[in-house]
Design brief:
The chain contains 3 helices and 6 strands. The chain is an alpha+beta fold. GO terms for molecular function: thiolester hydrolase activity.
C-alpha cells in the first residue's frame, strides 16, 4: 500500500520524516520527553520516559500520560496514510490495564481501517517490564488544514 497521494517509496519516507518533525515542533511535546518513529505505513511508535513529574497522588503515572501517548501513536499511524491533510481526533476509547511507574515506555500505534474521510487506528502502551499497560482505539477525520502549512512538517520533508 502507498500513502494517499501515490508518492511511492522515497516520497513516503519523506512524509514519515516530515510527520516526525511535526511531532517535535508541537509545543505540547516540550512537556513530554518523547520521540516519534514511523517505520512504515500505518505504524507509529512513541518512545517516552515516565518519571515522577507525571505521577498522580498515589505514585503512578496519571492518565493524561496514557491518553497523550496512545492518541499520538494512533494518530500518527493513521496520518502516515494521508499526505495532504492534518487529521483530527474525533473519538478515543481508552482501557487502563496496569499502572505505569518510572522507566521507558513505548506506545505502538497501528492503522486499522478507513482511507477517505475517517480513519481508525489503535494503540497500546508497553511498560518498562515489556507488559501492556493500556490500549486504545481512535477515530480520526481529515481536517481542512494542509500538512504543508503546519510549522515543523515542511522542515522534515
Amino acid at each position: 500500500m502507498q500513502p494517499d497521494g501515490g508518492r511511492g517509496g522515497g516520497g513516503a519516507e519523506a512524509h514519515y520524516r516530515a510527520l516526525e518533525s511535526l511531532y517535535l515542533a508541537a509545543p505540547i511535546n516540550r512537556l513530554f520527553r518523547s520521540r516519534l518513529e514511523i517505520p512504515e505505513e500505518g505504524v507509529a511508535r512513541i518512545h517516552f520516559d515516565i518519571d515522577e513529574t507525571v505521577y498522580h497522588a498515589a505514585g503512578a503515572a496519571h492518565g493524561t500520560s496514557y491518553f497523550k501517548m496512545l492518541d499520538d501513536a494512533a494518530f500518527y499511524a493513521a496520518n502516515s496514510l494521508v499526505t495532504d491533510r492534518f487529521l483530527l481526533t474525533t473519538a478515543f476509547n481508552l482501557l487502563f490495564t496496569r499502572p505505569l511507574h518510572a522507566g521507558p515506555v513505548i506506545a505502538e500505534g497501528r492503522w486499522v481501517s478507513g482511507r477517505r474521510r475517517v480513519l481508525v487506528a489503535d494503540a497500546r502502551l508497553i511498560g518498562p517490564d515489556g507488559e501492556e499497560a493500556a490500549r486504545g482505539t481512535g477515530t480520526f477525520m481529515r481536517s481542512r488544514m494542509a500538512l504543508s502549512s503546519l510549522p515543523g512538517y515542511a522542515d522534515g520533508a
